Amino acid sequence: MAPPRRKHIFRLPAPAPATIYVRAGFNRVLAGEFAALKVKRAELVVDKVEAHSQGDLRENFGFKAAKDAIRAVDRKMDELDRFYLRNTFIEVDPAGWLTKPTDTLLLGHVAEIEKEDVGTSRKHRFTFLVATYGETGSDPESGVECLPHNSPLAAALLGLTVNTPTRVTLPAGAAVLTVRSIRNPTQPELDRLLAPIKPPEFAEE
């Protein structure tokens, strides 16, 4: 029995299934990306067959390149497929964020956050729009940054009320989070912050 390949020994476990909030149209973009990868794979197979017909495979760099490219596309298709099947996607319309109640911090709110590191007592202030999956934009006019709802910081903040210090454990260590204000975004802010929807990117193995 052959020993396992090294890259499988230290592979991190797949993340647990999650409910992921996305903007309307994300599922369509996801399907379009998968269809585009299928087309690309079919073209690479043609290149591989053509390179195979050119002779000695030991020195056939075109054949090797096409073979490697097919493997890379296969990995992307597998990751995309697992991502879609593992999670539940709920599409939301950002237009509803303009008039949400502001009693507690929810998806779509703009909040000023104070973060105090427990170890150093250093304080930092940020202004975030708690946004849907994958959003990372920033607005130079208002200073607001997108914070994806499924990030560790957003997960700790959602549901908090104003001026209620809460101790949490984040990847960087223990911290005390205090929501200093909650408001709705403006339409111009959303126009500047929300970029065109893109398919997810996966880390290379």
Q: CATH class of the largest domain, please?
A: Alpha Beta
Tally of distinct domains: 2
Structural class label:
alpha/beta
Number of strands: 7
Give the helices and strands as they follow along the chain. Answer: HEHHEEEEHEEH
Tell me about the largest β-sheet.
Answer: 5 strands, mixed
Euclidean distance between termini CA atoms? 24 Å
Tell me, rounded to a whole number, the average pLDDT: 90
CATH architecture of the largest domain: Roll
CATH superfamily of the largest domain: Transcription elongation factor, GreA/GreB, C-terminal domain
**Spatial shape:** elongated
Rg (CA only): 23 Å
Give the SSE layout:
Elements: H1 6-9, E1 19-23, H2 26-52, H3 61-86, E2 88-92, E3 110-117, E4 123-131, E5 145-148, H4 152-157, E6 166-170, E7 173-183, H5 187-193
Parallel strand pairs: 1-2, 4-5
Antiparallel strand pairs: 3-4, 3-7, 6-7
Helix pairs in contact: 2-3
